[in-house]
Specification:
Layout lengths: L2 H14 L1 H10 L8 E5 L6 H17 L3 E5 L6 H8 L7 E6 L1 H9 L11 E11 L1 E4 L8 H10 L3 E4 L5 H13 L4 E4 L3 H9 L5 E4 L1 H10 L3 E5 L25 E9 L4 H16 L1 H9 L3 E2 L4 H22 L5
Parallel strand pairs: 1-2, 1-3, 6-7, 6-8
Antiparallel strand pairs: 3-10, 4-10, 4-11, 5-8, 5-9
Length: 326
């Protein structure tokens, strides 16, 4: 090689190296640099949708980018969850999951289309709500003990918003824990179930607090218990079902934030921080409680543990009650 050729190559070396240096720099572009999608696996106007929009606003403030709610309803939340399970783990597609998508459905469906543990990155626990055991005053009972005693004397019917819902699972758990048999009556429209409950065409219903509160206030329904581990702010005078005498009886609807598998740690940390900050804000907290939910919050590790617990918890209940999806 001539001296001129060697010098020419040495002089060109810094420029030849530029493409090799540029690729990692582009790969490490700041997140986020474009809008984020939050998949809500239920229809617009549902409680999950309302909660998703509240969360989306908080995440947008942290990210400095719009967070667009994408409603993907179907199969008890599985349709929307599958969209996120198949998305890249780049922080631009998130899921407001539930204990349906990440717990109940693992046993309810033969194939969810995804693995609720392996296909997701837990980000943050968000909010929870119990079901309320409501009965019409005409039933003539004022406590869980009186309801159980009545169920041992004659058959009772329980409405729900559909097979595999928290209301249905609450009724199934009541049968198991109290040693009774009640008849499940699923409705396509929860409002129709509440209407029939008020009219006394069914004897009881486990439903979320916001859905029953107006009727409890009006005296057309009576609350016997809530299924949470502790009393809720919306119904402070209503005992938990465990206080009412049934041990190991906690049923709660859960809403939590997940991303696809492989979500980078710094992205998880920012989204977790934003979620917990929302739950610490008094105005936001009042807004959430007005929706009938209570704050959870916590770490990604805590959410991972909750997900595993929910999957394990509902498997024997679903099997014992022989529950199948609608």
């Amino acid at each position: 090689m001539t001296l001129i050729t060697r010098r020419a190559l040495l002089g060109a070396a810094p420029f030849l190296a530029v493409p090799a240096l540029a690729a990692p720099a582009l790969a490490q572009a700041p997140w986020p640099d474009r809008p984020i999608r939050l998949v809500v696996p239920f229809a617009a106007g549902t409680t999950t949708d309302i909660l998703g929009r509240i969360l989306a606003e908080a995440l947008a403030r942290e990210a400095g980018q719009p967070v667009v709610v994408d409603n993907r309803a179907g199969a008890g939340g599985n349709v929307g969850a599958q969209v996120v399970a198949r998305a890249p783990g780049d922080g631009y597609t998130l899921l407001l999951g539930t204990n349906g998508t990440h717990g109940i459905n693992a046993s309810l469906f033969a194939d969810q289309g995804f693995d609720p543990v392996k296909d997701f990155t837990p980000i943050a626990p968000f909010v929870t709500t119990p079901t309320v055991l409501g009965v019409p005053p005409s039933l003539g009972v004022s406590s869980v003990a009186e309801l159980v005693a009545l169920a041992k004397r004659r058959p009772l019917t329980f409405a729900s918003a559909g097979n595999g819902t928290t209301g249905h699972l609450s009724q199934a758990l009541l049968n198991l824990r109290a040693g009774i048999e009640t008849l499940h009556v699923p409705y396509r429209n929860a409002g129709q179930g509440v209407t029939d409950l008020i009219a006394g065409r069914v004897d009881g219903m486990f439903y979320h607090p916001l859905g029953l509160k107006p009727h409890l206030d009006a005296g057309t329904l009576k609350a016997l218990a809530v299924t949470s581990a502790k009393r809720v702010s919306m119904l402070p005078d209503t005992p938990t079902i465990q206080e009412a005498g049934l041990d190991d009886f906690v049923v709660e609807g859960l809403w939590n934030l997940y991303g696809p598998a492989g979500l980078p740690g710094p992205v998880v940390a920012r989204l977790n921080r934003a979620t917990n900050a929302l739950l610490a804000d008094p105005a936001a907290l009042a807004n959430l409680r007005a929706q009938g939910v209570e704050p959870t919050g916590g770490s990604p590790e805590a959410l991972a543990a909750v997900t595993r617990e929910q999957i394990a918890k509902w498997r024997p209940v679903i099997a014992a009650a022989n529950i199948r999806p609608d």
